[in-house]
Design a protein that fits this description.
- The chain is an alpha/beta fold.
- The protein folds into two domains: 10-176 and 331-360, Quinone Oxidoreductase, Chain A, domain 1 (Alpha-Beta Complex); 179-303, Rossmann fold (3-Layer(aba) Sandwich), CATH 3.40.50.
- The protein contains ten helices and 16 strands.
- The strands form three sheets. Strands 3, 4, 5, 6, 7, 8, 15 and 16 form an eight-stranded mixed beta sheet that branches.
- Strand 15 (332-337), helix 10 (341-349) and strand 16 form a beta-alpha-beta unit.
- Helix 1 (57-63) packs across helix 10 and helix 4 crosses helix 5 (207-218).
- The two termini are 30 Å apart.
- The model has no long low-confidence stretch (mean pLDDT 95).
- The protein binds zinc ion (2 copies).
- Residues 56, 58, 77, 177 line the site of one zinc ion.
Length: 362
């Protein structure tokens, strides 16, 4: 985490009414409401008024106790909002343009230093001094750390992407987790080649899988998506994919977006195929690896976790452009007021829940 040097200037911002954050205290406990009457922005920091946040599967996993998290914690890392204050040195977007008060933006889940060996190598999501929105214990100088709040305090080192006014918030909020991660997964799998005519098999019709299917289909791939849920298969057909209950390999590119079909994904890769594992973001039993089979099929297996600022910018450009051909507007099935955060999390984990449940802080 970036520590403030004593000589650094701070830009104090007073908030009337106070910003409000919903703070998660632990499994089985309701969220608490914390009022934040002001923030001190360091150089490069940005204060954003949140327009809409969506509940990601990992937020649900956290409140159910399936993954550990430091508390007290402001959850939420899929949001869209508007810049209302900027630290004294100004701030720039991920593509290097100057950020202005009033800009509508999305931002990366990660805060990266940009100078450590991992950042320099292109793995900004694994920065040596990484911080993540929706994942950090709140502290005295950084309370507005997540999306389940009226405002979020973006720190220098966050990839900020300006977004079009015309695009619905429901399309944009998931960009900073599901869409950008899907973009990173497809980019890794395609390795710079066009996917025209390539057989792509996606496991899991959650939002990462659907987004990957749409991105690949738009690039000309023949996309098949596998999911046990009939409702999700029906929805997936609208994202340019043929949806099946069970695997239909071999495929040239396999994207495992569920975390539950790792062995099937590796088995489904054809000669010279690539398997991108992106869904395994929770503890699960190890998978046996048939090394001889991998060798004889010349298969590449690769992992993708989170994404870079470049992926986020590309994901937003897709949603604002050719991605409009796909029904991303329909992924948010319910919008709750911020005060109903506990009910929203229950709704997001219920059987047959929509792909995303949203929180509106206004
Ligand atoms: Zn997420
Ligand atoms: Zn770094």
């Amino acid at each position: 985490m970036r520590t403030l040097l004593p000589h650094e200037e701070r830009h104090d911002v007073t908030l009337r009414p106070s910003a409000v954050a919903k703070v998660w205290l632990g499994v089985g406990q309701p969220h608490e409401t914390v009022a934040v009457p002001g923030v001190a922005l360091s150089g490069g920091d940005v204060l954003v008024a949140i327009e809409l946040s969506t509940v990601c599967g990992s937020d649900v996993h956290t409140v159910q106790g399936h993954r550990s998290a430091p508390t007290p914690l402001v959850l939420g890392h899929e949001s869209v909002g508007r810049v209302i204050a900027i630290g004294d040195d100004g701030a720039v977007t991920a593509d290097g343009t100057v950020l202005h008060i009033g800009d509508r933006v999305v931002w990366s889940v990660t805060v990266s230093c940009g100078t450590c060996d991992r950042c320099v190598a292109g793995f900004t999501q694994k920065c040596r001094s990484l911080a993540k929105y929706g994942h950090e214990r709140i502290g005295p100088r950084w309370e507005l750390t997540g999306g389940f709040a009226t405002h979020v305090h973006l720190r220098a080192g966050t990839a900020i992407v300006r977004v079009p006014e015309a695009l619905p918030a429901a399309v944009l909020a998931p960009a900073s987790c599901a869409t950008a991660t899907a973009w990173a997964a497809v980019t890794r799998g395609s390795a710079g080649r066009s996917l025209e005519g390539i057989r792509v098999l996606v496991y899991g019709a959650g939002l990462v899988g659907l987004s990957a299917a749409a991105i690949a289909a738009d690039d000309g791939a023949e996309v098949t998506i596998v999911d046990p849920s009939a409702a999700r298969r029906t929805f997936a057909e609208r994202f340019g994919a043929t949806a099946l209950m069970e695997s239909a390999g071999p495929a040239d590119l396999v994207i495992e977006a569920s975390g539950h079909a790792v062995a099937e994904s590796i088995a489904a890769a054809g000669i010279g195929g690539t398997v991108v594992l992106v869904g395994s973001v929770f503890p699960a039993d190890p998978v046996l690896l048939d090394a001889e089979s991998l060798v004889r099929r010349l298969v590449t297996v690769t992992g993708v976790h989170n994404y870079t600022g470049r992926d986020l910018a590309a994901a937003v450009a897709f949603l604002a452009g050719r991605g409009r051909a796909f029904p991303f507007t329909d992924v948010v099935g319910a919008v709750h007021p911020l005060d109903d955060v506990d009910a929203a999390l229950i709704a997001a984990s219920a059987p047959g829940a929509p792909l995303r449940v949203a929180l509106n802080p206004r």
